[in-house]
Recover the amino acids of this structure.
């Protein structure tokens, strides 16, 4: 294919380096003509355009956006020959999932960058467009000018189905976007830069107008999934005035089905969670900023005006409070009769640290979830055995358990599950990789204790079919750690066993 590669048309300055020497095309053309006279056209020339389009699609990563790197498809495909370049640029499906990382520079360069971006985005034509845009600030260089984001998104807005805005994009820039401009937008992921923003105030040196809310996404009829980071909210403790909490992005809350809030979760929980009446999945990762954990956990008067937050459609809840506190008052307010999946994450499952009334309030909520069949526990310091016993006792309908264990909790965990707790458990997923955080593990060290065999005997051969373990998944640091005792005999009896090394 080397002779084909030499017939490149000149790539634009945005897609690669211009070749040196003005006679490159003439020399290459005469070389190719002589080659074809001696050997005939290359086999690739007999491939149809339709087949090439399908092949080109297979070169893209199925689960990632195209990074527009000149050494990777689809940009790389435009550098092979005129034929491939024409097919690549004209095939909208190759350009509908794009990730752009802009390197910030002088404002005078904005027009060139804008022209480059608009050209690339226009190649998706009318196809549903999935775009992630971030700005990488270089030392001594400025961010794009205030209207840059609006000029980039406006032409493509009508075709956007997924929009991700990352570092280098401010809340203030979103305030300039027009309303009702995103009729097809289904997923919105905002991981904005908060370094230069304060609530309602444009970045210093900007001439943007002061406004309270971003309203560009208020009227988006197809929007169902949203992820917000802490830059999308304002939260502060005010001396002798309680707290102030505001979500800076106005959204069609009632139609959302998936919401994830990372950092500064309190404004959303207090003001907007009750509006999400069609929510199916909720993810919350609280921050320690401004005593947010304390307010969510231990301040009963905070919930006095919202005794119950009704979420009738909620089936999946992920809570990461980045603390040893499990926030019982927050759970007490939730009315989620359809909840079937719960994931708890944090430093330590510290139920033993709570006073009995608070602990009982949390466990009582767990007992009320009669449809809870999937439970996931992930804690940096591991769930202590007493907390595990309480949680397992309160969730008797769980059929699938995913848990991250540290080495010194292994024996007690399997002893707990050898008894009557979790009587309907059928799938167990063990993640043992986190034990390396606290020191290296010898590749020959067996990290599953002797109590593991007793657990298998009790669960894999349980006489009650509803409580019989049917699948075991183990993820361990090294292959040598996966000494799973007499697992083979249980596999022969029908147990599905899977092991993974990250």
């Amino acid at each position: 294919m080397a002779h084909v590669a030499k017939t490149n048309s000149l790539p634009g300055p945005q897609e690669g380096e211009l070749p040196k020497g003005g006679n490159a095309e003439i020399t290459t053309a005469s070389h190719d003509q002589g080659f074809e006279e001696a050997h005939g056209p290359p086999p690739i020339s007999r491939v149809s355009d339709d087949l090439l389009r399908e092949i080109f699609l297979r070169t893209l990563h199925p689960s990632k956006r195209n990074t527009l790197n000149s050494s990777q498809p689809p940009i790389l495909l435009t550098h092979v020959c005129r034929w491939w370049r024409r097919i690549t640029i004209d095939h909208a499906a190759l350009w509908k999932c794009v990730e752009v990382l802009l390197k910030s520079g002088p404002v005078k360069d904005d027009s060139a960058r804008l022209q480059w971006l608009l050209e690339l985005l226009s190649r998706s034509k009318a196809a549903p467009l999935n775009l992630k845009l971030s700005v990488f600030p270089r030392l001594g260089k400025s961010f794009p000018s205030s209207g840059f984001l609006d000029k980039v998104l406006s032409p493509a807005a009508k075709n956007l189905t997924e929009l991700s805005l990352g570092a280098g994009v401010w809340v203030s820039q979103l305030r300039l976007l027009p309303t009702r401009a995103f009729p097809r937008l289904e997923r919105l992921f905002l991981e904005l830069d908060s370094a230069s923003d304060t609530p309602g105030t444009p970045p210093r040196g900007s001439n943007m107008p002061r406004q309270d809310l971003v309203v560009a996404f208020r009227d988006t009829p197809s929007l169902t999934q949203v992820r917000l980071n802490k830059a999308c909210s304002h939260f502060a403790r005010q001396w002798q005035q309680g707290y102030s909490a505001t979500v800076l992005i106005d959204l069609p809350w009632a139609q959302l089905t998936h919401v994830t809030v990372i950092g500064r979760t309190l404004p959303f929980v207090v003001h907007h969670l009750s509006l999400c009446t069609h929510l199916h999945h909720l993810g919350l990762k609280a921050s320690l900023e401004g005593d947010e954990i304390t307010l969510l956990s231990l301040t009963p008067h905070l919930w006095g005006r919202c005794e119950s937050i009704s979420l009738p459609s909620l089936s999946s809840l992920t809570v990461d409070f980045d603390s040893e506190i499990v926030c019982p008052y927050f759970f007490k307010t939730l009315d989620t009769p359809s909840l079937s999946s719960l994931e708890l994450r944090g430093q330590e499952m510290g139920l033993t640290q709570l006073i009995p009334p608070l602990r009982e309030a949390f466990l009582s909520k767990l007992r009320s979830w009669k449809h809870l069949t999937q439970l996931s526990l992930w804690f940096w310091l591991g769930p202590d055995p007493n907390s595990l016993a309480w949680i397992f006792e309160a969730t008797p309908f769980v059929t699938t358990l995913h848990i991250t264990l540290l080495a010194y909790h292994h024996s007690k965990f399997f002893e707990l599950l050898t008894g009557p707790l979790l009587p309907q458990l059928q799938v167990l997923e063990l993640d043992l990789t986190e034990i390396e955080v606290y020191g290296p593990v010898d590749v020959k060290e067996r990290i599953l204790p002797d109590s593991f065999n007793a657990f298998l005997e009790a669960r894999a051969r349980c006489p009650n079919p509803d409580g019989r373990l049917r699948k075991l998944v183990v993820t361990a640091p090294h292959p040598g750690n996966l000494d799973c005792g007499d697992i083979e005999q249980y596999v022969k009896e029908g147990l599905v066993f899977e092991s993974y090394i990250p």
Q: What stands out?
A: The CA atoms of residues 349 and 383 lie 5 Å apart.
